[in-house]
Amino acid sequence: MAKSKLGLLAGGPSCIAHRSKLPTTIRTGATSDTSKTISAKLTVRDAQLEDYVGIRKIINSKNNRASFGYLPRVVVEDAVKNQNADGEKSQHRIRVVVDANGRIVAFLRAYHRQDGATTLHEIGVAEDMQSSGIGSFLLTELITASRKRGMEKVALKTPVGMRSNGYYPRFGFKQAGTYKGRKRVLNCYELTL
Ligand SMILES: CC(C)(COP(=O)(O)OP(=O)(O)OC[C@H]1O[C@@H](n2cnc3c(N)ncnc32)[C@H](O)[C@@H]1OP(=O)(O)O)[C@@H](O)C(=O)NCCC(=O)NCCS
Questions:
Q1: From the CB of 187, is ligand 1 less than 6 Å away?
Q2: Max CA-CA distance within the chain?
Q3: How far apart are CA 67 and CA 166, in angstroms?
Q4: 110 alpha carbon – ligand 1 mean position (Å)
Q5: pLDDT in the model for residue 33
Q6: Helix, strand, coil share (%) of the chain residues, nearest 5
Q7: pTM of the entire predicted model
Q8: Residue to mutate, 130, 136, 187, ligand 1, most ligand atoms under 8 Å from C-beta
Q9: Where does 46-192 sit in CATH, by number?
Q10: CB within 8 A of 180, min separation 6: which ones?
Q11: What pLDDT digit, counting tens, does each position of 24-67 carry?
Q12: Phi, psi (5° rounding) for residue 89?
């Protein structure tokens, strides 16, 4: 079995795409039921309010900026409040990946809607940590959690012309039209679960 760039064994039944890079040796961490150690150096857990600064750093970094809209603090507050109250049942979810020094190196925000669609609002990885399987880990985790909840699909929008358009089809997402946003045109992608 090949080793991923994260230094973890790659491949395994949960891999939907990007097989060679997905970390699969996941242990449940001690901090909470929803915290997992994904490598010796990285942990994934639910976001807390103080993570907002780290999340904003990822969004606002030079090469990432054009991929994101504005993420208000109140939106993070809502997700944190709901996750703290409802745990995995929370409809609004933010997961963060934290390194050994406590730096937020990646995040994903999604909403499990009542109409059966999970909407992925943002996914971002710190520039120095990109292409090492972290984004794939977060996206696969979301897909798995959505399926487990009985959701019908995962949907997202990403700006036309951005590199990320090549990313989602690797996980089985299909283009489902375009959406004229306030500032730019977005491609819509959907994954039927
Ligand atoms: C897109 C993104 C979430 C992928 O996460 P990742 O951990 O870097 O990616 P993985 O290691 O899982 O997969 C690697 C693939 O990601 C894609 N990728 C890598 N860097 C990227 C970037 N800066 N922008 C878009 N896609 C990128 C490539 O397709 C890459 O494949 P390759 O290595 O064969 O070229 C991450 O690169 C990122 O945050 N990019 C900038 C912000 C963004 O585009 N977010 C999505 C729109 S909201």
A1: no
A2: 46
A3: 13
A4: 17
A5: 54
A6: 30, 30, 40
A7: 0.86
A8: 130
A9: 3.40.630.30
A10: 186
A11: 333 333 344 567 777 768 999 999 999 999 999 999 999 999 99
A12: -80, -15
